[in-house]
Known about the structure:
By secondary structure, this protein is mostly helical. The protein has helices at 22-42, 48-67, 75-88, 100-127; strands at residues 69-70, 73-74. A two-stranded antiparallel ribbon has the order 1-2. The longest helix is centred in the last third of the chain and has 28 residues, at 100-127.
Amino acid sequence: MEVKVPREVRKYEESVMLGLSFRQFICSAVAVGIAVLAYFGLRDYLGNEGVSWVCIIVALPIALIGFVTYHELTLEHFALAWIKSEMLMPKRLWFASDNYMYFAYQEYKLDKLEQSKRIRKTKRHKRGENN
């Protein structure tokens, strides 16, 4: 007897019925139910072609909820992450490079300037100048 083990354990989905996962099966059943309700509700007002298009348009988003994943996120998790990143907490990232060598050189120049002032001051002090 041979048992198939998927390479990535986290990607394993248990099949409930007709090869669909529980999530896919529920979303498919709800989509079919809504399409049937739309058909029986609108068949008197629209022709067969119009009703069929309405059924497809109404059922498609609900069916997609069960089947669509993006970067291993389900549709509602992806929508929440997108709303959070784009609307609730948007931030603009600015790139500004820092030249650390320039800042270090400026500090070095200031140190040398202060050192030379101290040396001149001590030389004047030794010579007896009071400026």
